[in-house]
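Regression test attached.
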Amino acid sequence: MASITIRSVKKNYAKTQVVHGVDLDFASGEFVVILGPSGCGKSTLLRMIAGLEEISDGTIAIDGKVVNKLEPRERGCAMVFQNYALYPHMSVAQNIGYSLKVAGVPAAERTQRIQAVARVLELEHLLDRKPMALSGGQRQRVAMGRAMIREPKVFLFDEPLSNLDAKLRVQMRSEIRKLHRRLNATSVFVTHDQVEAMTLADRLVVINGGRVEQVGTPAEVYGRPASRFVATFVGAPAMNMLEGTVTLDGISLLGGSRKLNVSRAGLAVSSKVAVGVRPEAVRMVAPGTPGALAATVDLIEELGAGRVIYVDLDGAPFSVVTSEAVHPEPGSTIGLQFAESDLHFFSSEAGGRLEVFKASVPEPALQG
Amino acid sequence: MVERTPILNFFTHLILFAGFVFCVAPFVIVAIAASHNLKDVNDVPMSLLPGSDFWVNIKTAWTTADLGPKLLNSFIMAFGVAAGKVIISALTAFSIVYFRYPGRMLIFWLIFITLMLPLEVRIVPTYAVVTNVLEPYQTIMDLTGLSWLIEKISGVQVQLSLGLLNSYSGLILPLIATATGTFLYRQFFLTVPDELTEAARMDGAGALRFFVDILLPLSRNNMAALGTIMFLWAWNQYLWPLLITTDQSHAMAVTELKQLIPNVGGAPEWHIAMAGTLIVMLPPMIVVVLMQRWFVRGLIATEK
């Protein structure tokens, strides 16, 4: 078990900077998921913790000890790779035990520890097979076994589930989670899959363009996204974004046709803000209901348990998730309602979250 | 595109058969000639029905040219070249592919250039070096006045000399120093996923450990292919062994075949010469037959 401290870490490749000064603290035993789109520098950050990538600037410390100059083997980290990276010419047992062999652990103890790990991962009957003769899920388990056997202080996962099919992914996800509960080692898990991130994380780190956008529990990140990027990246379908203009008495939406009765919170009149609302927070009502917005149905995606309804709201794309058994015809008009408390406000330029205070008027805030 | 019609099948087999005959006919003729006696082998045209003196001729060729020790010499040399080449190529390719150091590309191109300088082109300087491997150092010391200085101080005259003529090292070393194998390995190493390297690093394996435990086992097929090619190539070397071995104890089988070829004015004993040829051809043939499966795999397929 170990804490990880990352202080203003940067990474440059030749002249391009891919990580721009990241500060993070991971507590001992925590399961942290780093989430971001591809190319955002999340894997680079993980590889810098592992020691596979040099740190251009800043420091990374494990258990208070700066590891910048240490070789991977000296850092006490174990890593699970995206493509498993099993040694093709070695049997499962040899693959799992290789790090012990390198470390000079006697054969008898090695066998014993391989057996113990294989038992946990239910690989006992496969120990003599070559990786070629294994299924994707089994290979994944071998890769985890290889990481586990060293009893590392830190587990690093580099998108380990992205090569598995959907069903197996869900299964491995819960296995990883169970394993973490059992070993309780600090784990850093990199993924671009938000469902994976939400379900696994104790704490979520959202990264974009080499910068940390938000750190928080999955619920915090979902419920109070710190930036426009986080708002649209986390949650599926993505959060709806409407452009709002600050007026003297609030914020006007959809080209002035709708008004939100909120305080300006110090924003300049006629400056632009982005107003977001999650598709799950929007209710579908009969058209013409007082206080409802009128929208035209474009497309319906059936999800079984519910459906996503894509609509056109005054020329802007907008989506609604509903679990009601409603099936409006494409082209028909429906009414939409959402509570003002479900709205999120972001700065149009910088994308940062704005705390726009509700006006103390106890009337329906949204006026149609 | 694969088409299967009886006519097409027939023609492809015809072409295949023609190629087969074209390749095998010379060997068949050599074998038949080796089975005739002195009179029959000189008939024009020579009878293509095998004679009955095959084993007698083989025995005569073996004793006349003293092929026993020569074959052993050839084997030591060919094996040495093949093994040396496999090891050196693997190491150089490992260095070029897996390490970043200043001058890496320069070294890469220097190795590349040796492809354009086969032994035949640089045979005179190579011979000069082999007569005294330390000659270049001696020259450097003489030119810089170092040997003069040492002589003044200690009274010892510096005379560096290490000749490799008439030795296995002299036969083998110059043939090892070419680039072909390096490129074969380089291409293979480039196909090994980076994640494997990283996994080995995470497992605590250093560079050499990774090389020995992971890379070498993975390049088994490559080694077999390169080893086979180099064995055949070295076995068939003629010019270099001829030049460098003046004493009989280091003579090669291929160069000694010449002893069996009839001289002007001597008896035209072509049947003996052919029998000797057959014997000398046998070891490389055995190697090819044994290694063929690995050889083909090493050149065309990469194990996933």
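Expected vs. actual: identical. Chain B has one domain: 19-118+178-300.
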